[in-house]
Amino acid sequence: MLAIGTLAKRTGTKVQTIRYYEQIGLMPEPGRSEGGQRRYGPLELDRLAFIRHSRQLGFSLESIRELLDLSDSPERSCAQVDAVAQKHLHEVEARIARLEALRVELKRMIGECRADRVANCRILEVLRDHEECLSDHDRPGS
Amino acid sequence: MLAIGTLAKRTGTKVQTIRYYEQIGLMPEPGRSEGGQRRYGPLELDRLAFIRHSRQLGFSLESIRELLDLSDSPERSCAQVDAVAQKHLHEVEARIARLEALRVELKRMIGECRADRVANCRILEVLRDHEECLSDHDRPGS
DNA sequence: GCTTGAACCTACAGTGGCTGTAGCTCGTAT
DNA sequence: ATACGAGCTACAGCCACTGTAGGTTCAAGC
Ligand SMILES: [Zn+2]
Ligand SMILES: [Zn+2]
Ligand SMILES: [Zn+2]
Ligand SMILES: [Zn+2]
Predict the structure, then answer these.
(1) From the CA of A118, how many Å to the C1' of D5?
(2) Domain B4-76 belongs in CATH node 3.40.50.11810
(3) Which residue in chain B has the smallest CA separation from A78?
(4) Exposed/middle/buried for residue B94 (C-beta within 10 Å: 0-12, 13-18, 19+)
(5) How far apart are CA A90 and CA B2, in angstroms?
(6) Are A18 and A1 a contacting pair, CB within 8 Å?
(7) Are B39 and B29 a contacting pair, CB within 8 Å?
(8) Alpha-carbon distance A132 to A123, whole Å?
(9) For chain A, what are the domain ranges?
(10) Are B139 and A52 in contact (CB under 8 A)?
(11) Where does the HTH merR-type domain start and stop, copy by copy (chains A, B) (predicted)?
(12) Site from B48, B55, B57 to mutate, A interface, most A CB atoms within 10 angstroms
């Protein structure tokens, strides 16, 4: 039986994060020691490892919840699992596309600045006026 | 003099967002009508346009605050402005790199799944065990 | 057995950048 | 004069944590 700190170390998680996962029902309520401290077994270790690895791959906690639920029904077709992963891939690709457009625009405005005074800094000019931009970028956000 | 809703429409901002910017000191406290409603002039319009466009280019509100402060000293060298933009570019590039690694890993695991049962879904196998991954991905988060 | 101190506990506030809601008041067109 | 859209304040909620305060428990060393 592992104390929460040991579980945290084994999975590269912070202690508070584990308690947070419990609070939102992503980790089960574990057994307790006589004094009331959490004690974890191998099942919980595996579950937390799954959660953490999914997080490293960028899945949302909501998607992870879905994936965990699905993996409790081993007989079912994995179509839904694949759909969750596909959707996530698309979102990642969309974010890359947006960031790539940003990168191009930023690089251009930085390259155009002749490093003079603030009064005629190219970067500030572009920020003041979207007409100076080549790409469209409607929604602020990541 | 513009009411807040008009300013919002002109800049593609939500009314609450403008009030939020005022609350955190990014927009100045505007004049008020007799009845106490906010009234904006062209200076505020320009400032909000600058903020919004900077947000579209991914700058944080903290960076935007800095850029706005800097642009109040037109005589100074724009080195600091350029540094803010450079730093942001590097962060964007770092995020692209991370997302690109994610994309590769996700695409691989999706491609390897033979779309069978949950019990032997390749996606779940990879999520359970980072050893199945090719890349390293230490920190969760975008 | 006793003391120490690291690790644990709960509860709550804060992060960034908004967004939404409730319950009012104001402005303006007819 | 009245209707109603637009404005007002204050506060809660989103995501995924992270940090803090103030107290309790555990395990090792003596
Ligand atoms: Zn410059
Ligand atoms: Zn632009
Ligand atoms: Zn599958
Ligand atoms: Zn991995």
Answers:
(1) 43
(2) no
(3) B118
(4) exposed
(5) 41
(6) no
(7) no
(8) 10
(9) 4-76, 79-138
(10) no
(11) 1-70
(12) B57
The CB-side HSE value for B115 (13 A sphere, CA atoms) comes to 5
Gap from A17 CA to C12 C1', Å:
15
pLDDT tens column, A93-124: 999 999 999 999 999 999 999 989 999 999 99
| DSSP assigned state of B24 | T
Task: Compute the distance between CA of residue B124 and CA of residue B83 in angstroms, rounded to an integer.
Answer: 43
Residue B131 identity (one-letter amino acid): E
Q: How many distinct helices (H) and strands (E) make up chain A? A: 6, 3
Q: Is the shortest CB-to-strand distance from A92 to strand D under 7 Å?
A: no
Cα of B26 vs its chain's centroid, Å: 15
Q: Which of residues 66-95 of A touch B (CB under 8 A)?
A: 67, 70-71, 73-79, 81-82, 85-86, 88-89, 92-93, 95
Question: What is the rounded distance in angstroms from the CA atom of residue B130 to the CA atom of residue A11?
Answer: 11
Q: Residue B137: its pLDDT value, please?
A: 84
Q: What is the pLDDT of residues B53-98, one digit of tens each?
A: 999 999 999 999 999 999 999 999 999 999 999 999 999 999 999 9
CB < 8 Å to A76, chain B: 117-118
**Which residues of chain B from 1 to 40 reach within 8 Å of chain A, CB to CB?**
none
Tokens of A134: 């080549």
What is the rounded (10 degree) CA torsion for A53, A57, A63, A68? -30
- Hey, CA dihedral for B76, B79, B83, B86, is it positive or negative? positive
Q: Which residue of B has its CA nearest to A138?
A: B56
pLDDT for A2 equals 97
The Å distance, CA of A31 to C1' of D26, is 16
Is A36 (CB) below 7 Å from strand D? yes
Contact call for B49 and A128, based on CB within 8 A: yes
